[in-house]
Please model this.
Amino acid sequence: MERTAPLHAKRQLRLLSCNILAGASVQRYSEYVTRSLTAVLPGRRKIDNLDRLAALLPQFDVIGLQEADAGSLRSGFLNQTRYLAEAAGMPFWSHQPNRPVAGLSHTANGLISRIEPSTVLDYPLPGRGRGALLVRFGTGEHALTVIIAHLSLGALTRTRQLGFIAEILEDHPHAVLMGDLNTDVGSPEMRQLFARSRLQPPVQATPTFPSWKPKRALDHILTSSTVAVEKVWTLPQAFSDHLALAAEIRLPMSHGDHG
Model:
């Protein structure tokens, strides 16, 4: 398999953040009830849905997954991050299992990448059963740090989680936070994140939820001021109850770069 250029040679990256709901496709609120059984059982439809997503992943350099199943009953004991990486022909993947529920489900954050990470770290977040996956690409002062996270539903817990993430990022000048943050950019906890870290609010919010009629911007790709966001868009296909959020970013030039 041909590998792409290392990070220092790639100034432009395409990122994708996707809450995949363990492979389930939901197209209206009533399906949360009518498909409640399929939520905890494996099925061909979930594999077909993952295959449709895998076909699009080669367009991107770094993919962050939320609500991937780590290998439980509802996924047919399939590690969905690994499955997507292999189906897409992407060379690097990692996952961070959290929130196991009696063998029925085992939610995970996932990373799929075209570029080899120099570091992958798991951080448990404040609150119960949530985590952040920290990935570094490159080394030294020009390394890029990406955090993939899925935050809690409660505002107080989210405030603590975002405070923890801001603390982690203090030593990482070139950073991206992406994931299902379960809140919009104008919330008090997000304003606190921007005040306490180098991360910048987006120029405009991009609604991602619910996927069939997006009204709320719950999924985000946030960057520090040194990382330019050139465009942001959602994938038109609905792979879960969230639309996948994509961004093209430009990394700062290192001292050896010219032009």
